[in-house]
Amino acid sequence: MSEIGHFIDGRKVAGQSGRRASIFNPATGAKTGEVALASKAEVDAVVARAQAAQPAWGATPPAKRAQVMFRFRDLLNRHIDELAPLLSAEHGKTLSDAKGEIARGIEVVEFVCGIPQLLKGEYSEQVATGVDSFAIRQPLGVVAGITPFNFPAMVPLWMYPVSIACGNAFILKPSERDPSVVMRIAELLHEAGLPPGVFSVVNGDKEAVDALLDHPGIDAVSFVGSTTIGQYIYSRGTAAGKRVQALCGAKNHMVIMPDADMDQAVDALMGAGYGSAGERCMAISVAVPVGEGTADRLIEKLEPRIRSLNVAPYTDSASDMGPVISREALERIKGYIAEGEAAGARLVVDGRDLRLQGYEDGYFLGGCLFDSVTTDMSIYRNEIFGPVVSVVRAEAYEDAVRMINEHEYGNGTAIFTRDGDTARDFFSRVRIGMVGVNVPIPVPVAYHSFGGWKRSLFGDHHIHGMEGVRFNTRLKTMTTRWPSGIREGAVFNFHAGS
Ligand code: NAD
Question: Which positions fall inside the Aldehyde dehydrogenase domain (predicted)?
């Protein structure tokens, strides 16, 4: 049984509040540990520590801050085989998927190894006679991050390396469902030479989150999670005068044009719809084949692939996907499947009767596929966040574009086609933050920025890349004029003829 407290002042400490949450292994349903839930007083103490540590860190030359990131990157790479099982045991995803998410997180650390270059300012000589102007970016102070269960290593890594490299102190409040991996990564960051107090992990629930949102010592909040909570975080945080970015829920459509390579599209949909049991904010949960013939070919190829998915715990190296995160999540997803059936969608593959010998109490669900879904159904409108793909048949390309643009979410989308003109038109007109062309999960690399539109993002900045640097810094401009006089009056040189 693991006992997880907080990470403060460069070391692990026990929680003081007396409140705890249970942690489960989703593959077995067994309780594996407990995590402390911080009180407001504990949050106040962490913020005070961060405030004390930040000025010296903010004044440290960016090139020295980058040195910590170089060492951190090296340590993460060396420990990836230790970190992945820690992550999978609490989340349930396959080991290769866990390693993949850590690798994507490491890319952000690599990006901020170049922080001196990223923080370079702008300078204009002679904006008026004898007047120069320049602009620099300075750290905000103390930034808080609140993160979801589905990428317990990568999503925090989207945030704190950028924020810390920019010179801020950072307080992370991870998901209470799978906090172990981040606690170990915090140790590695300190082994890399980060001064105590600059990065803290405070575990908790609503009480800790609210304390962070209201605390006058917190300058900005990065949130990733569901839309209901994200909108709440955005309202409460901005009302308290903070800068807030809240990256939220999604319903990502994949359009399959009649000219698409169907084998490629089906391969892509299998990974994007069922990988990580559909628990990705960039998962494809709606397939939109254009034309009846395209739809029939899609279903025909997809159905046997879903039936042959290897659903198994992460300890099985041949597993395609693991369990979902919790018993409540399993029940919620099954509830949506029942609603879809009742609304008249055709359940082509029903994963609900999957039984795994030896794992009867695990939160497993087989892949599910609905055909003939319509846009008024709850399985279309809501984010299910499980291994369920809905096929909505579109008569024409324009119907597909309209459907996507009218959906309340705008995180990611993809189109599969061989036609450049269609792809270009789609990219130009679709009201979505991240678009793939023959790429099902168009997650931007670390030196670009990640973020959705509409109700998938509250706030102005996307995350990591230059948007992350802007979010974590404040712009300051200076205009200078120097009085003349000393240069003329003083004799610094030999006068001609002397
Ligand atoms: P969640 O919203 O339940 O939890 C996210 C965080 O908010 C957690 O740290 C949690 O402790 C905290 N929280 C939960 N309830 C709270 C409350 N009432 N008050 C204050 N804080 C609260 O999300 P989740 O279930 O952990 O993650 C899944 C969701 O995250 C999905 O909707 C998914 O689409 C979204 N997500 C979005 C992105 C993105 O980049 N847009 C990335 C990953 C996940």
Answer: 15-477
Exposed e or buried b per residue across 417-455, where buried means at least 16 C-beta atoms within 10 angstroms of its C-beta? beeeebbeebeeebebbbbbeeebbbbbebbebbbbebb
Mutate to test the pocket of ligand 1, among 35, 213, 248 (most ligand atoms within 8 A of CB): 248
Query: Which of 231, 232, 237, 229 has the alpha carbon at shortest distance from 213?
Result: 237
131-139 and 473-481 strand pairing: antiparallel
What's the gap in Å between 129 CA and the centre of ligand 1? Answer: 54
Query: Which amino acid is residue 17, in one-letter code?
Result: S
Partners of 13 in the beta sheet? 6
Q: What's the whole-number average pLDDT of the chain?
A: 96
Is 498's pLDDT higher than 60? no
Confirm whether 113 is a catalytic residue.
no
pTM for this model (two decimals): 0.96
Residue 370 token pair? 């609905």
Instruction: Name every residue whose Cβ is closer than 8 Å to that of residue 202 and which is 6 or more positions away in sequence.
Output: 6, 8, 38, 42, 43, 46, 171, 172, 173, 208, 212
Helices (H), 134-223: 154-165, 180-191, 206-214
CA–CA gap between residue 287 and residue 309 (Å, rounded): 18
Say which of 166, 248, 281, 368 is annotated catalytic.
281
Q: 29-32 contacts: CB < 8 A, separation 24 or more?
A: 29/327, 29/361, 29/362, 29/363, 30/361, 31/1, 32/1, 32/2, 32/89, 32/90
Q: Please report the pLDDT score of residue 494 as a whole number.
A: 60
What pLDDT does residue 484 have? 80
Q: Identify whether the C-beta of residue 417 lies closer than 8 Å to the C-beta of residue 260.
A: yes
List, chain by chain if needed, residues with CB within 6 Å of any ligand 1 atom: 146-151, 155, 173, 175-176, 205-206, 209, 224-226, 229, 247-250, 281, 383, 385, 411, 452, 456
Please name which of 445, 442, 421, 423 lies closest in space to residue 433, comparing C-alpha atoms.
442
pLDDT at 496: 57
pLDDT band of residue 485 (cuts 50, 70, 90) is confident
